[in-house]
Structures are given as structure tokens and as C-alpha cells.
Write a structure and sequence with these properties.
Layout: E1 10-14, H1 19-30, E2 34-38, E3 50-53, H2 60-63, H3 66-73, E4 77-80, H4 95-123, E5 126-131, H5 146-153, H6 155-166, E6 171-178, H7 193-205, E7 213-216
Parallel strand pairs: 1-2, 1-4, 2-3, 4-5, 5-6, 6-7
Helix pairs in contact: 1-7, 4-5
Length: 224
């Protein structure tokens, strides 16, 4: 990772109480950022992270909760490492499934981005990292998860739009598209969560990386 001191910067990691999000939060803390995490799991006190929400169902109402909304307004570094997954064929996907995938995997990161931008513009500094799904940086066919993958494919539009328009304000936005961290189709394609987190923090630390759609998946392809 880059040798960067993030002291004095406020970071919020949504989905930061477990998995890749937690690994990112810990790495940001090691770089001296003031890190808050929100998610569904309990975080050990030994991690030294400020937990603002635990064991909750993330949704638009949650982002408007005073403690989280305030954090978003003051946020210098936003990581949105969240997005529920469903695996169903198209003819099995319900209206509720479609709505949940669209809201949780596309609208929620968008709402968070829209909330943090005014403060970042005013401070002339911002680092935003969003998560796509495996190989959703471009349009691909998916046999059993089209609703999820379609919403995650839209994340690239947010990333590219934000990086093109807001770089003049000292703001960068990049995307991580991780592969399988467990239950990979083949053991050769399993990616370590810490490895994904290290690449994510590299993107957050560099002012020169903007609009990057980074696959960390060992070359896995959904068409295989």
C-alpha cells in the first residue's frame, strides 16, 4: 500500500463490520483515519473501530438516521461495501426480489454518494469507493443472478460519472469488483479478503487513480 497518513480524515465504511469491509476499515485505521463502521455484525472492541450501527437492515431510512446522516455529511472517505445477493433464474425472480436488488445494490450507494458530495466539495477533498459484483464492470449474461448483477453493473455508471465531473473538486471515485472470497467454482479462483481490501485502500489513497474499475478475481469469467 501507499505510504499515506490519513490522520484527520473521517472515514465511513458501510458494510464495515465483517468480511472485506472490516478488512478495509482496519487498514484505514492503521493509516490513522478516524473510522466509523456500519453493518450487521458485532465488532470486537480490540479492533478499535467506532461502530455506529450494528445488526440492522440497511435501507433508505437507515441512511437518514441522524447518526449516520451526520457521518455522511462529514465524511472524507466513503466505502460502500454492501450489497445483498440473490441467486434465482429470471422466471423465479419475484417483484420483491427486483425491488430489493435495485434499491440495495444501486440506489443506496447512489443516495450515500449524493449525501457526501456537498461536504467533500466544500472541503475540496473526497475519496469514494464503491463495490460492484464479480465481473459486473461490463454487460455479461448471468444464468441465475441477473437481478443482482444488473444492479451492480449500474455501479460503474455512478463511478464513471462521478470521476468525470468531480475531480475538479479534489474528489476521486473508484470501484472494486471482487471475485469469490469463498465457495469459488474452483479453488484456483478464491481470493483472500485481505488482498481485496489492500487493493481497495490503494485506490483510496492515490489522488491519481480516478474512475478505475478494478477486478480482483484471478481472471474468473462468468462464461466459463
Amino acid at each position: 500500500m501507499l505510504n499515506v497518513d490519513l490522520g484527520g480524515k473521517n472515514a465511513l465504511v458501510v458494510g464495515g463490520t465483517g468480511g472485506i469491509g472490516l478488512e478495509i476499515a482496519l487498514l484505514l485505521k492503521d493509516l490513522h483515519a478516524d473510522v466509523a463502521v456500519a453493518g450487521r455484525h458485532s465488532v470486537e472492541k480490540s479492533h478499535g473501530l467506532r461502530t455506529v450501527a450494528v445488526d440492522f437492515e440497511l435501507g433508505p431510512a437507515e441512511l437518514s438516521r441522524p447518526e449516520i446522516h451526520t457521518l455522511l455529511e462529514k465524511c472524507d472517505i466513503l466505502v460502500f461495501s454492501y450489497g445483498p445477493f440473490i441467486q434465482k433464474k429470471l422466471h423465479e425472480t419475484t417483484a420483491g426480489d427486483w425491488m430489493r436488488m435495485a434499491v440495495d445494490n444501486y440506489a443506496l450507494p447512489g443516495i450515500a454518494v449524493s449525501t457526501v458530495l456537498p461536504g467533500m466539495i466544500e472541503r475540496r477533498f473526497g475519496r469514494i469507493l464503491l463495490f460492484g459484483g464479480t465481473r459486473t464492470f461490463q454487460i455479461n449474461p448471468y444464468r441465475t443472478n441477473a437481478a443482482y448483477a444488473g444492479a451492480k453493473t449500474g455501479i460503474s455508471v455512478i463511478i464513471k460519472s462521478l470521476s468525470a465531473e468531480y475531480s475538479k473538486h479534489g474528489i476521486t471515485c473508484n470501484g472494486i469488483f471482487p471475485g469469490f472470497t469463498r465457495n469459488a467454482p474452483s479453488g484456483d479462483f478464491a481470493v483472500d479478503e485481505r488482498t481485496v481490501a489492500e487493493q481497495a485502500v490503494n485506490l483510496l489513497c492515490s489522488p491519481d487513480l480516478n474512475g478505475v474499475l478494478l477486478n480482483v478475481d484471478r481472471g474468473w469469467n462468468p462464461g466459463m
